[in-house]
Amino acid sequence: MNNFFIILVNPQLGQNIGSVARAMKNFNFTNLRIVNPRDGWPNPDSISTSAGADDVLKKTKIFSSVSEASKDLNYLFASSARRRDLNVKSLDLINTITFLNRNKFSNKNFKFGILFGCESSGLSNEDLINANQLIYIPSNASFSSLNLSHAVTIICWEFFKYFCQNRKNNNFIESEIERPLLKDMDYFYESLAQNLENSGFFHSNFAKNSIMKNIKVLFNRSDLSSQEIKTLNGVIKSLYDYNNRA
After folding, report:
1. 238 exposure class (CB count in 10 Å sphere: 0-12, 13-18, 19+)
2. Same domain, 148 and 51
3. Which of 39, 68, 103, 198 has its CB 3.0 to 4.6 Å from that of 63, i.e. a possible disulfide?
4. Structurally, how many domains does the chain consist of?
């Protein structure tokens, strides 16, 4: 299952990273990415708790930002127990699987990633605006916070069933819609921000950050196709060229 990626953001304890690797291997997932591990990498504390998932640890890749860790993916989920004030799509885990099946995301070349936050505070809003959708695990409303590796285990189990069912039914088809890589989305956001700044649209850096965050959430929620992103980039380029004619 090479198109499925677990991304840990600012994990604190090597033991927890090892437990995550173990949970992943239990369900045949081996792609682990880590953003800014607190105690550096490799971390010897991860080995004992991985319980034999050394191969997952050895191929783990380290990144400096969520954007870098997800730029080659097509779709990014974020696991969060807390309901946020961001207008990002949010579904419980079961309905997320239904969403995947309904949207024909069973293409073997379609790459998913799931973000998990650090043990003490979870994901920040700045991390979450990179996601297309939030996932939450239905649980006790008054005691909903799960241990990191437990959350990874539950989500990996559901995605394992999803992949196995599609393989059993031979549903790994070529998607009718080509989805852009997240790095293509980042290019669009950067181009849009630069052109808006050049036009004087932003009155301050604070306004720029706030507006671009809202724009990013809006477009990430829209599930745009690769062709639609190319069209939007073409629109921006055309407006730029028109405004810069001699």
Report:
1. exposed
2. yes
3. 68
4. 2
Query: What is the distance of C-alpha 67 from the center of its chain?
Result: 9
Please write the tens of the pLDDT for every residue from 63-110: 999 999 999 999 999 998 765 667 788 899 989 888 887 765 656 678
107 and 35 within one domain: yes
Query: How many C-beta atoms lie closer than 10 Å to residue 233's C-beta?
Result: 15
Boundary residue ending a domain (134, 168, 202): 168
Same structural domain for residues 11 and 119?
Answer: yes
Give the pair of three-digit tokens for residue 62: 């380290």
- Long-range CB contact pairs, 145-150, < 8 A, 24+: 145/81, 146/81, 147/16, 147/119, 148/8, 148/11, 148/16, 148/19, 148/20, 148/116, 148/119, 149/16, 149/19, 149/20, 149/22, 149/23
**Which pTM was predicted?**
0.83
> Are both 101 and 131 inside the same structural domain?
yes
Q: Domain range spanning residue 49?
A: 4-168
State whether residue 8 is helix, strand or coil: strand
In angstroms, the Cα distances linking 222 to 40, 81, 144, 179, 233 are 36, 23, 29, 11, 16
Q: Does 140 lie in the same domain as 198?
A: no
